[in-house]
Amino acid sequence: MTLAVGITLAALAVPAVKSSVQYFRVRSAVSSITGAIQSTRYRAIFDGCPYNISFSSTGNTFQVASEAVSGGTCATAFTNVGGADPFGSPAVVLNQNVTLQFKPSGFVQATAGTTTTITINNALNTTTAVSGRTTLNLVGVPTQNDPATGAVTRDATMLYVNGNITSLSGPGQGVPALQDGTALTITAAGNVTVTGDILYNKEPVTTTQNQIPGAPADTLIPGNNSGQVLGIFTGSGDIQLKNGQSNGNLEIDASLATISNNGTGGLINIGSQINTLSIVGGRIQNQIKNIGTTTRNVFFDRRFAQNKFAPPWFPSTTVQTSASNSATLTTTIQRTNWFNRTTY
Q1: Which residues, including other chains, have CB under 8 Å from residue 297's CB and lie 6 or more apart?
Q2: What are the tens digits of pLDDT across the range 268-305?
Q3: Lower CB count within 10 Å: N or C terminus of the chain?
Q4: Whole-angstrom Cα distance, residue 284 to residue 293?
Q5: Cα–Cα distance between 191 and 172 in angstroms, integer?
């Protein structure tokens, strides 16, 4: 009887111990996260430069990054401060990634969600997609096919979002986002919001006079054409500017198009006033809207005038004048719809 009672008490105690252990694990994780947030916010105020802290749901870690540099000058891009630190045991699960950005004024901006990373390796002929805790490995890379024959014309990618793109930017201000040889079109059913620099690794044209001695801006740079090209397109929304960079400048290396037959799309600023907006590529829109910038520079990518060069699957236009001396133009938009052709 004594043995039976002892076994029963032990069985009752095990669930209670497990519950207590889990409780203290959660408390420890909450304490770690709270302390990290408070410390990062104070550092932004003390240094006078933006900081952010990113929590990873896959690794149960947080990473602090800063725009502060020595001498009290703020950088234009975030740099990691140390390595990633764990905030809890594997038994404590964060259901999504979260990033908090702290301004020197004490303002806090939060961004939450699952980050999906797609890696295309042309050399190994593989495509890998990582979303949260899920990884998908594919053999092959995206290609652009001839619609008549199905033959591959080049390695190219289209990223389509069935909705709005709420934040589109490169890895940091002044940091290249597109590798040499990358041909990419980003399109959405709704608005596309650009929040930071999107840069080629090599600029295809000059952006200042005499950058090539004796040549004006917009001159093709010999040796800088690797086929790199970006197109950003929406047929039913706007390309919105919401610059989050501390110095107020913004550069987009791309052909920007907000066009459809009888459409109302345009390039519009929905954020703070932009100091200098630079576009290296082109700008096509149905309507002129307020871009809220002090200085605007549009450098035409002259490759678009040669040999039908364009971002992959980009819409095209035909412009006709109503009379030889008239300023009235009739524009017809082609290729604003894409179809699934799995028989390729």
Answers
A1: 207, 276, 277, 278, 279
A2: 999 999 999 999 999 999 999 999 999 999 999 999 98
A3: N
A4: 18
A5: 22
